[in-house]
Amino acid sequence: MDALHYASLLARHAGAALPHLSDEPGVPSFSLDFRTDNPEVPRLAKTQFGDEVSRYALVYALAHYDRFVLDLAVMDAIVTAVAERGGEIAAADALEIETSVRTVRRNRSVAVELRRLGGTENEGIATGITWFRGLYDVRNCLVHRAGIVSTQDKRLLDGITWRRFALAHNGDVLTGTLPQVVPAGTITLQLLESGRSWKLGERITLSLEELQQMMFSLYQLAASLVQHLNADFTARLGLESPPP
Question: What angle do CA 75, 59, 198 make, to 5 degrees?
Fold first, then answer.
């Protein structure tokens, strides 16, 4: 949760800082600053600052998601061992299991690990994994292809989805910023699907609103997965109720 919140704040800070950026930040120093003769470089570094931070924020969030899922895989393996051994396990054995899981599963697909941990019958988690796969493909394009969509990015060409909150007034979704003054009526909170697709050769950009929606979707999946595993671990260990 902290990593997702942090990523969202990074993007918000970038958007707030953009109007105040200069072409050449800071003050000159004795260190050598590599330069080119291309006058577009300082302009692009300034005007694309917000886009670059938003892209990095998604990469950062998914890096922490990788760690989160691997931690859950370790817990799952230890719970399995505890259940098989009658409710107890030596600390040394638990450490050995942790080391083994982190070594073997570190390079496995995170989406596959999510599916394994979530089980085959949990449709909520299955839907969340669909969002996750799309966002992870955005991450892969950013990391491996500098955000330029290629033929390898099939999901991005076909289109990806995620979830967002929306406020509606008398059933009509409100847009813009808050606060807003609206006529008398009914205000409701809705969960809607958002989505994007990119063209071949297009450079990926993410708006602040899109980045925030992506962080919310990732949090929803994480919360559903933790709730599912909490119940699963409780049952496997023969506990009466989930631990606090």
Answer: 125
In the chain, the number of structural domains is 1
Beta bridge partners of 189: 167
Q: Is residue 91 assigned to a domain? A: yes
pLDDT at 184 over 60: yes
How does pLDDT run across 22-76, given as a tens digit for each residue? 888 877 666 667 778 888 888 888 888 999 999 999 999 999 999 999 999 999 9
The answer to whether 163 touches 194, Cβ cutoff 8 Å, is yes
| DSSP code per residue over 209-228 | HHHHHHHHHHHHHHHHHHHH
The pLDDT tens digits of the residues spanning 121-154 come to: 788 899 999 999 999 999 999 999 999 999 999 9
Residues near 238 by Cβ (< 8 Å), separated by ≥ 6? Answer: 83, 87
Spatial distance between the Cα atoms of 218 and 183, rounded to a whole number of angstroms: 34
In angstroms, the CA 160 to CA 64 distance is: 21
| Closest of 12, 4, 56 to residue 209, by C-alpha | 12
Residue entry with tokens 């076909």: 158
In which domain, by residue range, is 217 found? 2-20+41-236
> 29: buried, middle or exposed (CB in 10 Å: 19+, 13-18, 0-12)?
exposed
Q: Is residue 15 part of a domain?
A: yes
Residue 34 lies in a domain: no
